[in-house]
Structure formats: structure tokens, C-alpha cells
Design goal:
The chain has 245 residues and is of the alpha+beta class. The protein has helices at residues 16-69, 88-91, 99-103, 117-120, 191-195, 227-234, and strands at 76-78, 84-87, 138-139, 141-143, 170-174, 181-182, 208-213, 218-222.
């Protein structure tokens, strides 16, 4: 009787050289991942800095408007029936080195009137957030417009009437992209937006929004600010006591 045995093939052991190669490949992958992450973070930091620079320019333009007229612009102009015509973003164009564009706009007609079609297709770069993927003529540079905000519906406010202090009062924010509007549209946001910010909010920049205060200071505001702080930032004469922000 012939007995046959089937031998299992011997498991091949890794050599020291092979182990070293595997470790080197893993180390290279980790280094590449770190490099890519670092590049992405650097790009986002640059975009965030550019966005803050845009807000700084907008704040300066609003102050230059105030210097000429002794008031901030209204949030929007209105016709004889009280219908909104043009946004503050249009009114400050001359103070953003956009006098030529401003001269083409018929202020007596609504922003979306055919007379203003050419201007509507010419969004100034200062109204673009480099991190927001939007339609070409949309902006996320929106004013806080409420009953006691710096910019008011159809009327103007003086700097001296901001009794809460310009450094404690928001003018304009870089709003989440879901709130984007046509740059000429007389549409903005109110404090309800800020009170609703949470971890699901589609921010352009991580965990918060940038904004320019009435003293022309640009700051980044964390989404988790207390409700009373957001409310105080949105009022010009509410008399609130603000904590750190």
C-alpha cells in the first residue's frame, strides 16, 4: 500500500529588505498626506485672508461714504411707493474705485431693470469670497439689516448714533453660501441667521464667519458665540454688555 502525503507549501517569510521597503513606502505615503493637508490648509488660510481683505475694503468704503454724507448708506434705496431699488453695495461703488461702473447704473430704476442689465453682469471682485462656489454674479457680502442695525431699511444712520460703540457693532459679514444673493440685489440678512449657525451650516471658512465692525475692524466670529453676544453685535443702540468675541 502506497501512502501519499500532500505537503503544504511553506509560508514565505519577509526578508529584512522587503520590510524596510514596505516601511519606507508607508512613511512616504504619510509624508505625502501631510504635505497635501498642509498645502490645503495654507490655501484656505490665504483665501480667508483675502476674504478679510475684501471686508476691510468694504468697511473703508462705508466709512468714506459716511465722511462725505455724514451718514452710512441705507441698506437699500426705495421708490415713491417704498419698493426697494438699489443695495448699499451699489451705493458705495464710487468708494471702491468703481466710479465708472456706478455711472452706468440708473438709480431711478430697480436694480434688475433692463437699463441696469450691463451693470448687473459686472460684479466687482471685492464682493467675491474666494472660498465660495457661487453663480458668477452672486455675493455673500451681506449687511446685518434689522430694526436697530447700522444699515437700516430705506434710511440712514450716523456713526454717532451707534451708542453701543462701533467696535461692538457689526456692519457686514461674509455669510454662508446658502444665503448668497445677486450682488446688486437689495437683500441682506438679520440676526436670525447668526443665531441659527451650527455645525451643519455650510461655511466658506471653517466654523464661523468673518465680519467687519463699525470701527472698520475685521474679525472672525466663531459659530458657537452665545446668543446674547450675537444679538449685541447686531444692535447699534441696544445697551447690551458683550463678553469676549
Amino acid at each position: 500500500m502506497i501512502c501519499s502525503t500532500t505537503r503544504k507549501p511553506a509560508r514565505r517569510a519577509y526578508t529584512l529588505v522587503e520590510l524596510v521597503v514596505v516601511l519606507l513606502i508607508l512613511a512616504a505615503m504619510v509624508a505625502l498626506f501631510s504635505l497635501i493637508s498642509g498645502v490645503n490648509e495654507a490655501r484656505e488660510a490665504a483665501r480667508r485672508s483675502q476674504c478679510k481683505g475684501h471686508l476691510k475694503g468694504i468697511g473703508l468704503a462705508l466709512h468714506n461714504y459716511h465722511e462725505e454724507y455724514q451718514v452710512f448708506p441705507p441698506a437699500y434705496t426705495v421708490d415713491e411707493q417704498g419698493k426697494p431699488l438699489h443695495s448699499w453695495r451699489v451705493l458705495i461703488l464710487p468708494y471702491l474705485d468703481q466710479q465708472a461702473l456706478y455711472a452706468t447704473i440708473d438709480l431711478s430704476r430697480p436694480w434688475d431693470h433692463p437699463n441696469n442689465a450691463a451693470a448687473a453682469r459686472a460684479i466687482p471682485n471685492v464682493y467675491r469670497c474666494p472660498s465660495a462656489e457661487l453663480d458668477a454674479m452672486q455675493t455673500t457680502c451681506l449687511a446685518i439689516v434689522d430694526t436697530d442695525s447700522c444699515l437700516l431699511s430705506g434710511q440712514s444712520r450716523t456713526l454717532s448714533s451707534i451708542t453701543d460703540g462701533p467696535k461692538n457693532t457689526l456692519l457686514v459679514i461674509d455669510a454662508p453660501r446658502t444665503k448668497a444673493v445677486h450682488w446688486m440685489s437689495p437683500v441682506d440678512v438679520n440676526q436670525e441667521l447668526l443665531l441659527s449657525l451650527n455645525e451643519q451650516t455650510p461655511f466658506q471658512h471653517r466654523k464661523g464667519v468673518s465680519g467687519v465692525l463699525a470701527d472698520d475692524t475685521v474679525k472672525f466670529f466663531d459659530r458657537d458665540l452665545p446668543a446674547e453676544t450675537w444679538t449685541g453685535l447686531c444692535t447699534a443702540s441696544g445697551g447690551e454688555t458683550l463678553g469676549e468675541f
